[in-house]
């Protein structure tokens, strides 16, 4: 299971790190000066830099945009209005944050002021249990089924205790990229509603879902609260623009527990307002990236499956893939070997709480993907030969 410790002992190798956040920081340091490395772990669409710069110029190069507003009270009003329109919610249902991580931390702090039991999906993005632990929660993991990465409502119900305060999920799921349908979410919501427990859903990948305009889980019932951002789908990490969507009364309690999102930037949220009011070019960017990259991954993944190296179909949406490595139980050791011998970088499943799989990201450049995937296939064949 993912570690919930906030401090780690120093490691002789980055692959000794127990959690994804520490591992990725260590690996980014390793990547300095590694111009020829095959980087296959990134989980974000590459930044549309030209589009971002154009919006920044529109905001500040000439007359100051009227989107440059105070953010301390309720966030940038133009951001709120654009988000309300995009997701078919009322402005009172939106709370602006500096990103999805900040939003999750705010929800957890409000829910866990007196401590409590928290159910977190596994495999998972390690920040989910870490943030809950830091907020005072006692963590228990709810397994997603191997292969389908769905959650059994009956299993969820069995794990809920009298002191359970929060259930934490992602949709699309990180690391598998699997989408839980609205019916599946409603089934989980019914379990939570019967027990009086809130479900926090990290939806940073949700805009990859059908028609590019998904319905936040918060619209399915008051037992849900969701967080999102412009980071993963749109590649706009630099803007640090996130949000919480939920019942207005619940948002009021979150504000009371965390008075003011003091990290909000007037500058970045002014640009974010202009982005949100004109999303078509940014939608077109990620669609073009995946239209180019997905066939590359599909072709090489198909060959690796046929060669008996990996198992698991590519998810229908998103920019991550979490295949099983056939015959490999210690994927941390495999990932270390790939890096040390072939300069191929993938994320081992252990840092997400499930050994035996690796996460591959395909939101970057197609030419790099086209070089890295065949190198990965060849290296996996060599690894099997070495371990026969």
Kindly summarize this structure in a few lines.
The protein has 388 residues and is of the alpha/beta class. Helix content is 40%, strand content 14%.
With strands numbered from the N-terminus, the spatial order across the biggest sheet is: 2-8-7-6-5-3-4
Topology as a string of helices (H) and strands (E):
HEHHEHEHEHEHEEEHHHEEEHEEEH
- In helices, the fraction of residues equals 40-55%
Intertermini distance: 29 Å
Under CATH, the topology of the largest domain can be stated as Aspartate Aminotransferase, domain 2
Instruction: Please compute the radius of gyration using only Cα atoms.
Output: 21 Å
Principal-axis shape: globular
CATH architecture descriptor name of the largest domain: 3-Layer(aba) Sandwich
What is the CATH homologous superfamily assignment of the largest domain?
A: Type I PLP-dependent aspartate aminotransferase-like (Major domain)
The structural class is: alpha/beta
Number of strands: 14
Q: Total helix count?
A: 12
| Uncertain ranges | 2-11
Strand content: 5-15%
Domain unit count: 2
> Mean pLDDT across all residues, rounded?
93
How would you sum up the major sheet?
7 strands, mixed
Q: Name the CATH class of the largest domain.
A: Alpha Beta
Layout of helices and strands:
Blueprint: H1 20-31, E1 38-39, H2 49-60, H3 77-87, E2 94-97, H4 100-111, E3 116-122, H5 127-134, E4 137-143, H6 153-159, E5 164-170, H7 182-195, E6 198-202, E7 224-229, E8 242-245, H8 248-257, H9 266-276, H10 280-306, E9 310-311, E10 320-321, E11 324-325, H11 331-342, E12 344-345, E13 347-348, E14 358-361, H12 366-386
Parallel strand pairs: 1-12, 3-4, 3-5, 5-6, 6-7
Antiparallel strand pairs: 2-8, 7-8, 9-11, 10-14, 13-14
